[in-house]
Write a structure and sequence with these properties.
By secondary structure, the chain is an alpha/beta fold. The protein has nine helices and 22 strands. A hairpin with a 2-residue loop joins strand 20 and strand 21. Helix 7 packs across helix 8. The protein starts with a strand and ends in a 6-residue tail after the last strand.
Length: 368
Amino acid sequence: MIHDTTKGEAPLHTARYWSSRPEDGRLVCELCPRFCALKPGQRGLCFVRKAEGNRIVLDTYGRSSGFCIDPIEKKPLNHFLPGTPVLSFGTAGCNLACKFCQNHEISKSREVASLSDHATPEMIADAAERAGAASVAYTYNDPVIFHEYAVDIAAACHAKGIRSVAVTAGYICPEPRSEFFAHMDAANIDLKAFTERFYHDLTASHLAPILETIEYVAKETDCWLELTTLLIPGHNDSDRELTEMSEWIMDRLGPDVPLHFSAFHPDHRMSDVPPTPQATLLRARDIARAAGLHHVYVGNTHHLDGQSSYCAGCGERVIGRDWYLLTDWNLTDDGCCRSCGNRFPGVIEGPPGNWGRKRQPVRISAPT
């Protein structure tokens, strides 16, 4: 779907990754595999990339749906600077059309100009530094659609020693993908299912580009990677699909990429689907571990064992978690198991943080 709009404009920022099509005067966005072909004034499905004259612009550059300090485990990232605070924010729009979107008030927002906060990359980096955040997370909606803004923020944050985290579906073309993940220190990529039918019918996208992005990040970058699958009853939770997905991860990525199975709740256009039972999450965890994966977690449910981390060498609990609160800690400062010396995969730098379950809204600037 392509959108026409003539009102509520945000400041315009020239986008990258597009080409012109002289035969019909359209501009083709080459950021993601949709390749939206736009006439002047039209927006892509993401809504935030628009044909303006002879260029495509990103009109959410500098615009945010709000800022908040979260625990890093909420992203979810269980192997990246555990216990530390992360400054989280998103913008409007998304390049997928998930019928089950849990953040549709933000990702499907069409009120670009009324977003609550306006902030330059430098202002965001300064705010993260003042708040003592170890990282900044691009989340709530998919950061690949505000590619230029995210990359500039990451550069400003890196200048202050602050990391960058992408929470994304990974639906992005190879050239922008290379630039984007070169600026990210960690990513949680949604592997929403393991069938083309699911991606086509429920997200209006395709599975293959997602798998390509996951393999690229795991094998070609220094970006720490974790995966999340939202289990939706009757749609992506069969034993067969979970086995095939787990075996693919094991074969292509290895046993140490953490996998999170998260509980669905009725929302958006799938309000008639029941919530995910905890038993389904635990069954999925058992299947993934049986396939050889070492670090498999359950989310959106309270289960101490399924939220905690264990040493792949000796089986000792190395990080205990009660929701987002860290309890047990059995790792050395350089990330090795204190019981057997086996290295725990991830980014562990010294003792854990103590941010816990706190959530702290942050105002970057006055509304514009």
